[in-house]
Structure formats: C-alpha cells, structure tokens
C-alpha cells in the first residue's frame, strides 16, 4: 500500500500539510481510576477490542502482561499455538497491560482457620472463608460468608490489597495451591479446595499442578448447636412455658357474654367480652361500655389471671381452673360468683375449635338475646306546642338547656322570596250552613309557612 502524498514530502519548513479529513480535534482521555487504583487507559488495536480475542491473546502467555521486555520481541500467530520465537517480520509488537488482559479475572479458593476460645467448653471455632485472588494486580481479599445466628461479626475479614509474604516480598499466584497453609497478618489459613474456573486457569495458564482437594472439616460448636434438643421421656406434670409461648404467642380467644342480674333489686342485663389467652391460660373480662349508662368508667371486671371454677381453689391444682376446652357457645361459667352466659364468639375462635376439637360451625351459632328491649329506653316523645313563640322555638326549649335561635335557610329565603302558592278549599262539615264556606290556603316557599284565609 502506497504512503499518502503528504507523508512523502520532506519534513522541511513550509512543506507540512494538514490532514483535511480530520474532523475530531479533541484530546483523548488517558487517565482514570479502576477499583480505587489509578491506571492509564490504553486504546487497544482493532483486532483486540472483542473480549474473546483479548482473552485468547492474554491466556496464551500471561508473562507478557508483567512488563518483561524480552517477551515483547516475539510475535503472536493466531491458530498456530500462540507465541513463536524469532523476530517479527514487518509486524509491530503489541503490549497488553495486566489491568486490561486480566480485568474481572478472579480466582476463588475455599479455606478455613481456627479461632481459639478461652474460658469455654469448646476449645476453638472453625471459621470458613473464601480467598479471592485478583490476577490483574495480584491483590488478595478474604471474605467470610455469613452464618445465621452465629453471634460473630462476619463478612470482609481482609479487604482487597497486596498481601505481604515477608518484609520484601508479596504473595503471587505461584504461592497458591490446594492443601497448603497461607499466613496473612499472623493468621494461618488452610486452603482445601477451589472452583472449576480457578482449577482450569491454574493448570492451563499458569501450568501448575494442583494438589488433591481436602474435605472441609466440621465445626464442633456448630454441630452442638444444630443438634436437636432431646425431650424428657418421663412425664413430670410440669408445664413447658417456653413451648407454650412459642406455639401460642398472640393467640387470643374472644367470647361475648351476658350477665343476667334482673332478679335482684335494681339489677339489669349487662354485656361483657371474655378474652382467653392461650399462651398462659389466663382470662380477662371486660364490660361493654355504652353511653349514658350511668356507671363509672371501669370496663375491666376481671384483670388478666387464671379463672378458678370455685372461689376457694388451690393454686397448684390446674384442674380447678377454667381451660379453653371448658368454653362453648351456650354454656354458663362462674366468674367470681357471677353466672355468665356465653352467647357468641368471633370467627377466629370458631375456626380454632373446629381445627382442634372438631366442633362444627352450627354448634357455635350465636344465641339471640333481646338486649336492646331489655335495657334500652324508648323513643323520645316531642311535647306539644305550648303557644309561646314559633314551633321551632318551642322545640328548641326541649332539646337545649340554653335556648338557641332556630337556624334559617337564607339561600332558600332569597331564591323563593315573594313566591306564594294559593289554593281554594271548602270545608267538609256535617252542618248545612258550613257547606258553602270557601277558604284560601296560601303556602310561602321562603319559610314553609301556611296561611288560611276566608274571604268575606
């Protein structure tokens, strides 16, 4: 291919020509940061821009990415086994930096270390970790996968950095293998296995023969914790409060009860709500408060406690206290000497009895009681008009202690001002002299007032 015309002219003053085809005069961005490290951006050739082509080139000889000048004088022939010795014939050498060739290439090794425990039954804790090796800059990170309910701070144990091997050396990929010990900052890690990508990379690219993988040992402390709790075989008669709390926490049965005390003097029919707490077999009784009942606001008749069947009961004898199996819709219970009738329950209580005791829904139907007629007052009767003022004034004296003027609809009065409906009527009477009498009935739309007038 012939050189361009402007390149053949001698480079002398006055013989330099500008490329008229150039349209972009911006300076390219050459510096940047990647993973917190300052790097120089490299513009790859056209044939190395694809990731597959770049990985194939970098994987053939990784030593070229570490800056050894003697490897830069060899050419790469695709399809013929990689790099070949000898000077290149008419082809300029290419150098691909490590941060480009090995970008996102991470090797993962599974390891563990033992943490000594002082003043405890167990001697050590076995903590499993993952060692991540970043090939692009030989940095290492140690991460511990979190274990639920371990009680130990877990996550990133050693952040990504170059790990010192001695005072003058750092760890490289050649120091890694299976079934070996690695010491990072005074802590010894035992490498037991790796993933398939790491194994293939170590054997094909680094040409290292890996040792046989070792099984990950079990942690005796985690084994003791995961062991199921052995339940006692003998029945001691004690209640397992922890089990009741875990199974029945926030589970409450609700019954609607009535107490009929109308046989006594000034007695009445009163409504109550009974709550039964399954977590500790306690009962709470609350009164249904109604407005204007004339009673002090003390809604709790019985605070949360175990309800005895008889007033004089031994506290250690649980059979003498009410249990949820003793309750049914329609049964009568004794609440501190008062006979309560359970007339209804909520939907959750019905489902609970159906699931645990097989009680059908028709057996838990509510009992109808005419409570409103038994206790509720009748409708208020409006007294007749007393003749003072208007009808609204007389009605206001019955509703309010302090009289208030009746409210008027001013919009209606403005819209219907001077609008009057007139009707002619005659009197129906058994007297003959009244049959020919005529009247005029006037209805005012502004204030709904009526006037009856008999013309002369």
TrEMBL record:
<keyword id="KW-0206">Cytoskeleton</keyword>
<keyword id="KW-0677">Repeat</keyword>
<dbReference type="InterPro" id="IPR040193">
    <property type="entry name" value="EFHC1/EFHC2/EFHB"/>
</dbReference>
<keyword id="KW-0966">Cell projection</keyword>
<protein>
    <recommendedName>
        <fullName>DM10 domain-containing protein</fullName>
    </recommendedName>
</protein>
<keyword id="KW-0963">Cytoplasm</keyword>
<feature type="domain" description="DM10">
    <location>
        <begin position="249"/>
        <end position="357"/>
    </location>
</feature>
<feature type="domain" description="DM10">
    <location>
        <begin position="417"/>
        <end position="456"/>
    </location>
</feature>
<dbReference type="GO" id="GO:0007052">
    <property type="term" value="P:mitotic spindle organization"/>
</dbReference>
<dbReference type="GO" id="GO:0000281">
    <property type="term" value="P:mitotic cytokinesis"/>
</dbReference>
<dbReference type="GO" id="GO:0005930">
    <property type="term" value="C:axoneme"/>
</dbReference>
<dbReference type="GO" id="GO:0072686">
    <property type="term" value="C:mitotic spindle"/>
</dbReference>
<feature type="region of interest" description="Disordered">
    <location>
        <begin position="213"/>
        <end position="233"/>
    </location>
</feature>
<dbReference type="InterPro" id="IPR006602">
    <property type="entry name" value="DM10_dom"/>
</dbReference>
<dbReference type="GO" id="GO:0043014">
    <property type="term" value="F:alpha-tubulin binding"/>
</dbReference>
<feature type="domain" description="DM10">
    <location>
        <begin position="103"/>
        <end position="206"/>
    </location>
</feature>
<dbReference type="Pfam" id="PF06565">
    <property type="entry name" value="DM10_dom"/>
</dbReference>
<dbReference type="GO" id="GO:0060285">
    <property type="term" value="P:cilium-dependent cell motility"/>
</dbReference>
């Amino acid at each position: 291919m012939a050189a361009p015309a402007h390149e053949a002219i001698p480079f002398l003053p006055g013989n330099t020509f500008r490329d008229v085809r150039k349209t972009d005069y911006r300076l390219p961005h050459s510096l940047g940061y990647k993973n917190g490290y300052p790097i120089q951006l490299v513009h790859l050739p056209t044939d190395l821009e694809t990731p597959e082509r770049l990985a194939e080139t970098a994987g053939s000889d990784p030593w070229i990415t570490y800056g050894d000048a003697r490897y830069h004088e060899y050419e790469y022939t695709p399809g013929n086994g990689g790099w070949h010795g000898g000077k290149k014939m008419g082809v300029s050498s290419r150098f691909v930096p490590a941060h480009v060739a090995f970008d996102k290439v991470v090797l993962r090794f599974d390891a563990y270390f033992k943490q000594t425990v002082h003043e405890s039954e167990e001697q050590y804790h076995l903590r499993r970790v993952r060692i991540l090796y970043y090939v692009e800059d030989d940095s290492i990170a140690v991460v511990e996968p979190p274990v639920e309910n371990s009680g130990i701070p877990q996550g990133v144990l050693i952040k990504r950095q170059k790990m010192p091997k001695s005072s003058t050396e750092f760890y490289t990929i050649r120091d890694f293998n299976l079934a070996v010990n690695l010491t990072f900052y005074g802590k010894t890690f035992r490498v037991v296995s790796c993933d398939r990508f790491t194994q293939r990379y170590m054997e094909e690219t680094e040409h290292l023969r890996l040792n046989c993988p070792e099984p990950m040992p079990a942690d005796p402390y985690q084994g003791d914790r995961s062991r199921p709790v052995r339940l006692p075989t003998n029945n001691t008669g004690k209640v397992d409060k922890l089990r009741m709390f875990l199974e029945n926490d926030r589970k409450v049965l609700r019954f609607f009860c009535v107490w009929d005390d109308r046989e006594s003097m000034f007695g009445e029919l009163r409504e109550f709500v009974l709550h039964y707490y399954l977590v500790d077999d306690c009962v709470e009784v609350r009164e249904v408060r109604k407005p204007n009942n004339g009673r002090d606001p003390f809604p709790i008749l019985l605070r949360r406690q175990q309800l005895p069947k008889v007033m004089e009961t031994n506290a250690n004898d649980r059979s003498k206290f009410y249990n949820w199996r003793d309750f049914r819709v329609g049964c009568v219970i004794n609440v501190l000497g008062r006979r309560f009738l359970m007339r209804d329950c909520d939907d959750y209580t019905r489902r609970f009895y159906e699931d645990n005791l097989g009680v059908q829904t028709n057996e838990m139907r509510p009992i109808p009681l005419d409570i409103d007629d038994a206790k509720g007052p009748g409708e208020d009767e409006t007294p007749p008009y007393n003749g003072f003022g208007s009808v609204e004034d007389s009605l206001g004296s019955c509703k309010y202690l302090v009289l208030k003027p009746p409210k008027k609809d001013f919009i209606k009065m403005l819209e219907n001002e001077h609008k009057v409906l007139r009707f002619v009527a005659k009197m129906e009477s058994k007297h003959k002299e009244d049959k020919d009498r005529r009247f005029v009935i006037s209805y005012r739309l502004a204030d709904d007032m009526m006037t009856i007038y008999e013309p002369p």
